Amino acid sequence: MRIEGTSALVTGGAGGLGEATVRRLAAAGAKVVIADLSDERGEALAKELGDGAIFVRTDATDEDSVLAAVAAAGELGPLRIAVSAHGGPVAGQRILSRDGTPYDLDLFRRTLDIYLTGTFNVLRLAAAAMAKNEPEESGSRGVVVNTASIAAFEGQIGQSDYSAAKGGVVGLGLVAARDLSAVGVRVMTIAPGTFFTPAFRIPEEQAQEAWGSKVPFPRRMGRPEEYAALVQSIAENDYLNGEVIRIDGALRFSPK
Q1: Are 253 and 156 in contact (CB under 8 A)?
Q2: Cβ atoms of 221 and 247 closer than 8 Å
Q3: pLDDT at residue 200 in the model
Q4: 70-95, pLDDT tens digit by residue?
Q5: What is the pLDDT of residue 217?
Q6: pLDDT value at residue 90
Q7: CA separation for the pair 196, 32 (Å, rounded)
Q8: Is 227 known to be catalytic?
Q9: What is the pLDDT of residues 139-190, one digit of tens each?
Q10: Catalytic residue among 103, 115, 162, 239
Q11: Angstrom distance (rounded) from CA 188 to CA 131
């Protein structure tokens, strides 16, 4: 698929993996909607990129909010790329605390709502818009890239909600690709390992020492630019469909 001349939608586009993806797609010639809840960061990035991007305040879990972002993308050009890279708070607690108190059900639901339901919401609404595109020579009308995590496969202690949500994103990928094959929309899933982003809220050196040293090779945390480069490769290669790609330096999570 040709990126130049298309529009793209990136949830979580104001920071971390999403910001790197916005920059990469804009550099490749797409007009990008930065869909995020952070007004300050989103507006600053849009101003920096000029004609390459606009900011639309977006809650991935809200239908009307995502519809507005999709409509904004459609005004920039045919929406052919949608990337779910948004995040949110995760409690990081065991199913039973030391005193035997069970994990709060509302916290579990909140995590699934953000990471799984929000991803599905973007997928379904973006795909509906893509289905109206004129097909390219290959028959392609667009691609949706979802973000899982290697925690979907090797969840650590205290990650029950996060692992369940990301496991759901993994499980969604193939059936979505099959569902949407009739309209020429591909669905791919990226499962990152430990990537350094502002979400860590600690200095990079400290994060690299704690997590980067556990990665077999390269012995460091991932860089958001590497995730973004993979998104571009997926968008440009029409034969990538219905698959999960781990990008983790051969890391496999231990129990904790």
Answers
A1: yes
A2: no
A3: 80
A4: 999 999 999 999 999 999 888 889 99
A5: 97
A6: 84
A7: 23
A8: no
A9: 999 999 999 999 999 999 999 999 999 999 999 999 999 999 999 999 999 9
A10: 162
A11: 16
Could you tell me the fold of the domain covering 7-247? Rossmann fold (3.40.50)
Question: Hunting for tokens 């039973």 — which residue is that?
Answer: 96
Instruction: List the structure tokens of 179.
Output: 């569902």
For 177-189, the pLDDT digits (tens) are 999 999 999 999 9
User: What's the half-sphere exposure (Cβ side, CA atoms, 13 Å) at 231?
Assistant: 33
The CB-side HSE value for 104 (13 A sphere, CA atoms) comes to 8
| 3-class secondary structure per residue, the chain | CCCCCCEEEEECCCCHHHHHHHHHHHHCCCEEEEEECCHHHHHHHHHHHHHHEEEEECCCCCHHHHHHHHHHHHHHCCEEEEEECCCCCCCCCCCECCCCCECCHHHHHHHHHHHHHHHHHHHHHHHHHHCCCCCCCCCCCEEEEEECCHHHCCCCCCCHHHHHHHHHHHHHHHHHHHHHHHHCEEEEEEEECCECCHHHCCCHHHHHHHCHHHCCCCCCCECHHHHHHHHHHHHHCCCCCCCEEEECCCCCCCCC
First to last CA, the chain: 40
Structure tokens, 117:
């339901």
* Residue in the block written with tokens 């920096």: 48
Q: At a CB cut-off of 8 Å and minimum separation 6, what does 184 contact?
A: 131, 135, 139, 140, 141, 142
Q: Cβ-count burial of 34 within 10 angstroms (0-12 exposed, 13-18 middle, 19+ buried)?
A: buried
